[in-house]
User: What shape does this take?
Amino acid sequence: MKRRLFWKIWLGFWAAYLLLTTGLWSYWSLQPFPYQPDWDPPHAAGTALVEAAANALERGGPPGLEQQIANWPAAYRERLTTDPLASDSCAPTVDPRAIARAANDYCLRYALPPLTDGDEDWVSTVAPPDYLIAIALAGLAFSAVLAAYLTSPIHRLQAGFGRLAQGDLSVRLGPTMGRRKDEVADLARDFDAMAERLQELVDARDRLLHDVSHELRSPLARMRLAADLLRRDPARLETSLDRIDHEADHLDALVGELLTLARLESDAGPSEDYFDLLEVLRLVVNDAQFEAEAQGVTLNVELPADSSDDEWLILGSGQLVHRAFENILRNALRFSPQGLAVHLTLARTGTGCCTVTVDDEGPGIAEGEAARLLQPFVQGANQSGAGFGLGLGIARRAIAASGGSVTLANRASGGLRVTITLPLVQSRWLSA
Assistant: This one.
C-alpha cells in the first residue's frame, strides 16, 4: 500500500528539524564565548590539569608535583593551590567554579576564571529564551505549511461535492490538484470518475426517456388513427381491430424489452448463480433452428460434443445469457438473405475464458457503428424499421453482468461477426 502523504509529512518534519538545528548552530557559532580558550581552559581542561597534578603528587610527592607544574603557564600555576587534607575531606569550596581533588593527604584545587557580567547574561538569559523562541517559531511555521498543504485540496474537494450535490455534473477536480501525486490527488481523480459516471447515467436516463417516448408515440398514434377510422366507417371494423391488435402486440413487446433492459441496468450486484454455457447454447440453437428453417437460412453450429459437468460453467444468470444469445442469433437470421448461412462456434481462448462467435452473411454494418449499435434504441443504416434497437443493447448488458464482453466487426468475406467473450469458472474454485 502506498503512503505517499505519510512520506511527504515525514520528509517535511525532518527538513524543518534540519533547518532549525542548522539555524541554531549558525546563531550560536556567531556569539562570543564567555572565556578565551587559549588563556582560560573550560571546565573539562581544568579537570584534566587537576588530574595530571594529582597523579604527579601520588607518584612523586611534592617534588613530583613541582616538576609536573613547572612547565605550566604562570596563569595556570597561580590557579592551582595545594593544601593539607583537612578533616572535612576535599569538599568543593563555596565557589562553584573551583575543581577539587584529593591526593596523597593533600587537597588540590583549581580555580576557573570568573565569568564577566556580559558572559553571565549570555549564558543565563540570552541563550535559553532564544532557543525556545526558535523552536516555537519553527514548529509554528511547519504546522502552518502542513495545514495549508492538507486543507487547501480538502476545501476544493468540499466545494466540488457541493456543486455536485446542486446538480452540476460537469465539475472536475483533477486539474485543480496540479502536480500532486498523493492520496488527496487520488481522491480527486476518484471524484472525477464518480462525477463522470453520474453524468453518463443521467444522460443515458434522459436519452432512454426520449427514445421510449418516441417509440411509444408511433404505435399509440396508429391505434388512435384506427379508432378514428372505425368511428367514421363502422364497416371497417375487422381491419381496424386487426390494426389495434397489431399495435397492442407491438407495445407489449416493447414494454417487455424495456423491463428486461431496466432489470439489467438496476441489477449491478455480483451474481451467485452458476450455469452451463454449453447447455444454454444448445437450448438457444434448438429454438433458432425453427426460425432459420422458416426463413430459408442454414444454421451451422460447432459445439463440443462431450464435456465434463464443470468444463463450461459461468458465474451469472443463465436466463439473461440465454436471452442475450437469442437476440444475437435472431439479428443474424433477420439480416441473412435466404439461401445463405449463419455460423455459431464455441471455443476456449486462453486460460479461463471462452469465446462464442456468431457469423452471418448479411449486409454488415457501416463504419464507426460497432460501438454505437450496442446502445439501446440505436439502429444501423441497414436496420431501419427492424425492431426497436434494443436487442444488442440488452445482449451487451446481459453478457456484461456475467463478466463478459460483446464486440461487433464486419467480416472480410462479407457479413457481420459478433464475438462474445465470457470468463469460465475454474473447477478448483468450486472444490475449495
